[in-house]
Amino acid sequence: MQPSLKSKRFFTLIELLIVLMVLALASGVIGFSVHRALREQRFKTEVELVADSLRLAQNLMLIMNADVHVTFKADEKIPSFA
Prior knowledge:
With about 80 residues, the chain is mainly alpha-helical. The chain has a domain at about 35-80. It is about 65% helix and about 5% strand. It is built from one helix and two strands. The protein has one helix at about 15-65; strands spanning about 70, 80. Strands 1-2 form a two-stranded antiparallel sheet. β1 and β2 form a beta hairpin. The termini are far apart.
């Protein structure tokens, strides 16, 4: 004997909407956290680039025994040395 349709449990529309809302909130929180972590990592990478460039300029100054000028431009990733 098969169980009747009335005895089967179906999800109501409200239950489905609540589950979808919880999933949307969770994905929003996770997405925001990932975005913030990427921004922080990008910032740290840029700071390391500046520090490495200044160390290189210091080494060039010591090798050449002369003043070295470091120029950072917004549209270029690599600084120029003069």
